[in-house]
Amino acid sequence: MKLLISNDDGISALGIRVLANTLAEAGHEVTVVCPDRERSATGHGLTLHQPIRAEIVESLFHPTIKAWACDGTPSDCVKLALWALLESPPDLVISGINQGANLGTEILYSGTVSAAMEGLIEGVPSIALSLTSHTSKDFQPAASFAKVLVEQLSAEPIPDLMLLNVNIPAVEWEEIAGVTLTRQGLRHYVDVFDKRVDPRGKTYYWLTGEVIEDVEPPEGLNLAKNIPLDVDVIRKNYISITPLQYNLTYAAGLDKLSQWKFQFP
Predict the structure, then answer these.
(1) Residue 94 has pLDDT above 80, yes or no
(2) In 132-239, where does DSSP find H-type helix?
(3) Which end of the chain has less Cβ packing within 10 Å, N or C?
(4) Burial 145-182 (b: 16+ CB within 10 A, else e)
């Protein structure tokens, strides 16, 4: 398959190198276009008020891989690849492997998911891959699963245009309990701004935060209750696959608001 790979951790991140090399060695045609530095938690930002530059990167990936480092956001990278760098559209856009989970509400901020979402917006089925650890450096199990998933999609393409948000537990391959389809959960965080003073005496704030609980989504958002939550299955060492779309219309909300009657003067 023809694959476009991006990320939000930057061109030097181990996750994208292991992923791209594994898929290239499996015989896929791989192109890498990703940020030239870490651009995590950038959401779906696009660069509109300054030029975007991309430079060819050599000797960092498998010799068959064409690679560019872009000074824009993850979404910029995918949009630039699809409209300017690639000669023809890819079969799949893959983003990752991210260092850290993208579960529950984390997907709203994730540059990894946003890069894949940009592919979806442009009509290309997409995958976001995340390793659920900020410290583990063993990306090979996640890359091995990516190879299995791409082979599955090659034989049996995704039936509708969608994004597969895939989270892989940070354990050995033999310890993975299996693969399960999931729905998006809800994570509550405690957000703390650490107040500091720079060498010039100016006050600044550094955002920190941690998950305090994972909860069931509100009733109106809680579709397919019989499907497990992504935040739950990861704890049991299952790989989580959540299908996503870019249409954020709240269908239940349309029903509830349809009874409104507006009177204009």
Answers:
(1) yes
(2) 140-155, 230-233
(3) C
(4) bbeebbeebeeeeeeeebbbbbbbbbeeeeebeebbeb
Whole-prediction pTM value? 0.89
Is-cis flag, bond preceding 97, omega within 30?
yes
Residue 57: CB atoms within 10 A of its CB come to 18
> pLDDT tens-digit profile of 214-235?
556 655 555 666 889 999 999 9
Which of helix, strand or coil describes residue 252? helix
Q: Which of 66-70, 195-199, 259-263 has the highest mean pLDDT?
A: 66-70
Residue from 98, 94, 68 nearest 81 by CA: 68
List, in order, residues 6 or more apart from 170 with CB less than 8 Å away: 131, 132, 133, 136, 138
Structure tokens at 45: 């930002």
Show Cβ contacts of residue 73 under 8 Å, excluding neighbours closer than 6 positions. Answer: 35, 39, 42, 45, 46, 47, 111, 114
Given the candidates 3.40.630.30, 3.40.1210.10, 3.40.190.10, 3.30.300.10, the CATH classification of the domain at 2-183+219-247 is 3.40.1210.10
Query: Tokens 């107040």 identify what position?
Result: 195
Could you give the CA distance from residue 184 to residue 207 in angstroms, rounded to a whole number?
24
